[in-house]
Write a structure and sequence with these properties.
Layout (H helix, E strand, L loop, with lengths): L1 H5 L1 E4 L12 E4 L13 H14 L17 H10 L4 E3 L8 H4 L13 H21 L8 H26 L10 E4 L14 E3 H20 L12 H14 L3 H12 L8 H4 L10 E5 L12 H5 L11 H4 L2 E3 L1 H4 L12 E2 L11 E2 L14 E5 H14 L4 H12 L26 H12 L6 H8 L36 H6 L5 H4 L8
Antiparallel strand pairs: 1-2, 3-7, 4-5, 6-10, 8-9
């Protein structure tokens, strides 16, 4: 933790109307000048925008692995390739491949690999959010403007702890008393004492408190100033994600309902133009990418878009193509518009049938394409899933699913009932809950991190060549069929044990394998 505590990263605001390029600025926490950044709601927008810039910036790990470490989209992609639905057809240069074949946990001593990348990244977001939250009582400005800034800081902290917990611990439900995370709610410095791992129960107590506070403040705040900002609706979207994990079904349904109320479902070109435009009416939260902020090789679209040719070279997505599980693809009817997101018969890369074309550059020469972090479609599916669990609301869940699905497949209908799920994701039961989850898997492919859903649903999975997986990625030696597996729990980086006297490797490190 010492590196995280040593200074607060402040990335100067980039969300100006001219979208001019800005730069990285480091301000030690001991400098008095840093206090001026939080003196007013207007001034605090600068460090707030800096936090959002961190969410899609490279540099959370070292050496060449920065190519797979560019913030929250990278961490979501990591969680996607760990599942069964995003098929990696080839190793390429190795980026995301080691996540895919479960060969990263033993690399916890290195600052170049995933343990350090994710831990370091989310705790930096938390450290910066804490400074904004700590200044709330002294911050000047209109109450609603203060709410706007502070509410977002609470939401960022809740979001970060939530994803840290899903990455570095088993799922919350049934493991409440197991180790969670070291918790920090005050500004930190080089001399701050490290905290022990709180239980998952205590961890989620803070997460729920934070997101509820964010929702409360943002309800009485200005509208979203930029799509990168978390507003009242996005905060409810984050709350809905959290409540799915904690199995708070009514709270999840209510939050998702509010979240979707300000947006319309995407149709037609909104869905098939490359998922690269944050301004679309179905996009709730996303990052604007401008030419002067593209770092070159590495960001999400370089790994996903296999068909957009860069000057003088083949895009990296061509050498390490991402494809859909062919069995999942087959669950769409021939009239489903989402079939256009994958090409089962494409010839440009014959080694990769079912190649994805869902995510494309808006301008491959300049490396442009916005990052979409939340779409309203997720909220429809979340609300339907949550309603399905609530006694007496199964019909509401089915009707909401139909309302969403007719925008994908005009002839869609279902009479399914029940909430039974198979032990493995391939053990089909025919229940309504399973149907909702299948549509979620299709719709949100590449957007929410498949392994996080597998964990919270307490299902196992296996990969097969029938799905399209190459034999080199079948992970036959990894226990992914047991929902209690530690295979999906990342190891804590060695730097945490080196800098935190309240944690010891022998007691606090997660299992290096899939069993404890």
């Amino acid at each position: 933790m010492k590196k995280i505590f040593a200074y607060i990263l402040v990335l100067v605001a980039f969300l100006t109307t001219s979208c001019e390029d800005k730069f990285l600025e480091t301000v030690p926490t001991t400098q008095a000048s840093g206090e001026s950044m939080f003196s007013s709601a207007t001034a605090a927008l600068v460090p707030l925008n800096g936090i959002y810039r961190m969410m899609y910036t490279q540099g959370w790990s070292t050496t060449a692995n920065v190519q797979q470490c560019d913030g929250i989209t990278a961490w979501t992609l990591m969680a996607d390739v760990m599942g069964e639905d995003m098929v990696m057809k080839a190793q390429g240069s190795g980026w995301y491949w080691y996540d895919c074949i479960y060969n990263v946990k033993s690399r916890y001593t290195s600052s170049a690999w995933r343990s350090y990348d994710v831990w370091n990244g989310y705790y930096r977001l938390i450290a910066n959010a804490n400074y904004i939250i700590a200044a709330k009582d002294k911050m000047t400005g209109l109450p609603e403007d203060i709410n706007y800034v502070v509410g977002q800081a609470y939401a960022i902290r809740a979001y970060s702890y939530h994803y840290l917990a899903m990455t570095f611990a088993r799922t919350y439900k049934g493991h409440e008393n197991e180790p969670g995370l070291p918790l920090y709610t005050e500004p930190t410095s080089a001399g701050t004492e490290g905290q022990p791992r709180a239980t998952l129960s205590k961890t989620y107590e803070l997460i729920r408190s934070d997101i509820d506070k964010a929702v409360e403040l943002l309800q009485n705040a200005p509208t979203q100033k930029h799509k990168t900002h978390i507003d009242y609706y996005v905060a409810n979207g984050i709350k809905a994600r959290i409540c799915l994990v904690t199995n708070e079904w009514q709270a999840a349904a209510d939050a998702a309902h509010i979240a979707r109320s300000n947006y319309t479902l995407g149709e037609g070109a909104d869905l098939t133009s490359g998922m690269n435009d944050r301004t679309l009416s179905n996009v709730m939260w996303g990052a604007e990418i401008i030419e002067t902020q593209t770092p070159g090789w590495g960001p999400f679209l370089y790994h996903m878009d296999a068909l957009s040719m860069l000057p003088g070279t083949q895009n990296y997505g061509y050498r390490a193509p991402k494809c859909i599980n062919s069995l999942l693809y087959a669950k769409m009817s021939s009239n489903d518009v989402r079939r256009q997101w994958w090409n089962p018969n494409q010839t440009s890369n014959p080694a990769a049938p079912y190649l994805q074309v869902k995510f494309r550059f808006s301008d491959p020469v300049k490396g442009l394409g916005d990052k979409l972090w939340m779409r309203v479609e997720e909220m429809y599916l979340t609300e339907a899933e949550a309603l399905c669990h609530i006694a007496g609301k199964e019909a509401d869940a089915r009707n909401l699913l139909k309302e969403y699905m007719v925008t994908r497949d005009p002839g869609y209908n279902t009479t399914k009932t029940g909430t039974e799920l198979g032990a493995l994701t391939t053990d089909e039961t025919g229940s309504l809950l399973e149907e909702i989850l299948i549509q979620r898997r299709i719709e949100l492919w590449g957007e929410v991190g498949r392994i996080y859903d597998i964990k919270r649903l307490k299902q196992g999975f296996k990969r097969t060549t029938a799905m399209g997986w190459p034999s080199s990625a079948l992970i036959s030696g990894v226990n992914t069929q047991n929902p209690e597996s530690y295979a999906w729990v990342l190891t804590i980086p060695q730097t945490e044990f080196d800098g935190n006297k309240s944690m010891t490797f022998e007691v606090d490190q997660n299992p290096l394998g899939d069993q404890k």
